[in-house]
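A reminder before we start the practical. When you read a complex entry, don't treat the lines as separate problems. The point of joint prediction is that each chain is placed relative to the others, so the output describes one connected object in space. Small molecules and nucleic acid strands, if listed, are placed in the same frame. In the example below there are two entries. Take a minute to note the order of the lines before looking further.
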Amino acid sequence: MDTWVEDHHQSGFSVQNLPYGIFSAPERDRRIGVAIGRHILDLKVLAEKGTFAALDIDKTTLEEQTLNRYAALGQGVHRKVRAFLQSILRADTSLGRFLRDDAALKKEALVPRQKAEMHLPFDIGDYTDFFTSPYHAQNVGALRPRPLPGTQPPESMYNMPLGYHGRSSSVVVSGTPVRRPRGQFLVNEAPAFGPSQKLDFEVEFAAFIGKGNEHGIAIPVVEAEEHIFGVVLMNDWSARDIQSTEATPLGPFNGKNFCTTISPWVVPLDALELLRTKPVPSHTSLLPYLQEARKDTVYDIPIDVFLELDSQEYHLVQGNTKNILFSFAQMIAHHTAGGCPLKSGDLIGTGTLSGSTPSELGCLLEATRNGSQPLEGSTLDVHKRKISRAWLEDGDVIKFRVGNTGSNGRHVDFGCCEGKVVPQP
Amino acid sequence: MDTWVEDHHQSGFSVQNLPYGIFSAPERDRRIGVAIGRHILDLKVLAEKGTFAALDIDKTTLEEQTLNRYAALGQGVHRKVRAFLQSILRADTSLGRFLRDDAALKKEALVPRQKAEMHLPFDIGDYTDFFTSPYHAQNVGALRPRPLPGTQPPESMYNMPLGYHGRSSSVVVSGTPVRRPRGQFLVNEAPAFGPSQKLDFEVEFAAFIGKGNEHGIAIPVVEAEEHIFGVVLMNDWSARDIQSTEATPLGPFNGKNFCTTISPWVVPLDALELLRTKPVPSHTSLLPYLQEARKDTVYDIPIDVFLELDSQEYHLVQGNTKNILFSFAQMIAHHTAGGCPLKSGDLIGTGTLSGSTPSELGCLLEATRNGSQPLEGSTLDVHKRKISRAWLEDGDVIKFRVGNTGSNGRHVDFGCCEGKVVPQP
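Here is the predicted structure of the whole assembly.
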């Protein structure tokens, strides 16, 4: 499939991707758009012109300032809209002419991405983060000073996707500065308060819920994928000194709730079909409520981490969305097993996507062994300039981008998930 | 202060209380009301008639279906409205005549509470639960089979209010049935899945945030009380078997996120001034960001727990809102120390309000020593009928009500915080 929109082949925003986002631009208030090439297709403009009339959907859901109402319509509607958008954007269809050959409409409906400002795609009601990479768990567990019962990676993480509730109010869209948090941590075993000295990133993948479930009614694992609207890259910034001081027995709190950054574009699962693969093998057999029909339930998407400073980009590490024990469908089935209601716009993260090798680590905590062995990054150009970090410094910009997914992956792009560390005022 | 509204003296809803709630009634859609005696003052009716014109507030905030916009106006506005409402409800003011002597308006503006259905007072963005009773921590810690490092009540709970993010989507208003959750727990050390066999209540007190803070900007402890709109009774239902299986290392998740019940009426802190007292003494000195100017920063409010079955009410235990190490102001200062944004309608709980004596326990986990010694409850009438519970059974109704607060406390009522346990379908 190819599209008539200019420059599409120079970006990952092909007609096979078509991710959703919320953007504004000069003379355009916040609205829903779909990325195509170097442009954004303005769905509000199309909806107002009756373009979707034949689809029998509530077009007002496409005229909103967030994706919540549209996402709640369910996967059947989203598939119909996706197929329709592909048909008007493809080079080889007669329907494509409707937009391509109408210069005035084209100008109104296609906005250069460079001119757009991106916003949070959803009003996020609840945000849940899981802990599904066994490599991350093993690496972090090995860093603890003494092997303590109850602090090692627990056996339970193989029996179910372990998760915790995060802070939805501190989720921000890519580009938002990240203020170094103050907090309480131990200095020479005594409580102290000040700016975190162990600021870290965490490479994650996250799903936005589309259609929710009624309070008290679980979502069966075989139906759970239908409740996913799309996926984003996510940086769950962490203050390791604050986190380690507070985390027993209730889990992460202020060490995490100062900021979580997501990519601007929400990619439908249908765009990722060719990247399906199996999750990390487990030595346990799952209880029936977590058993899926198919085996290729996760995705093989490398996520590169860059540190930008003084206009130089240094490659640090790479995570991969396949490094997990459980699929999003299993996370959803587990999350709702007791009746917990998920709502449109709820966000569900995988946890840090570390793999089994030293270059496949998803945070500095692991890569530097709790700051004891600084990580060296280098530019990808011929100069191979170096940079070294134990923890993040003020002024560092951390960027997540999808890496090389091979011949199948050309069309996958979420936009950059980035944030600049700024000091306390 | 006395009011001209009939029957006020037979309830805790005096003119000194004036809590807010969201109600509907025949021919009245959801709206904001204030409880007075056996009635609800319909603020939407008053706002539409221009009653608040002299107060210079955005009256549309009083015509909403939740309290979010009104609460966000800040304490200055709420004090002004409270004083105004007191003046029109008092028996001894000339302003009182405006409503009292207008039979038609009175009929329109005062709705019998019996005819009203109560709803969630806020659209709750984020819900945070703290862990601030040292007695609860000690009791629960003593129940663990072996004293394990990292699982005992940590020293950190004296240095800061330990908290975790709860699930806002599962918070319900009093009266909503509580479905016994299914979940994963260990049976003979092996993972199993089924309805929880250890269903429990937790007696808590919780604050709703009014005016929020900007992302990145902490709320100083001395200003934190101004960000509280009001307080409710809260039952943080818990499935102990699910909770103990999942809680290491990330804290409570499915063991809690199936349901949390709050009382229908949100009481302003100004109504509780006479009940102020000191928190539980601590052996540690606090860091400056948690140091308050005054000492009486918590409230002495006993909360009685009843089990109702077959129209009989059995008294089980009593908690008290004073059994905590940290005030709401300290919880807010700590919560926002790293820049986490609080928004209007966010909910903050104290954690289980157990005290130092066997009758002052806030959950069955403590009162029955993890189910090993069933708790006996008895009716408060002359018959002294008995009931015994290790854990909650299907059909049990758990009710929290404010106990005897002495001569100062007559005017404090939150309404009943209740829920009936219903089985899995």
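Discuss with your neighbour: Chain B has a mean pLDDT of 94. What might explain this?
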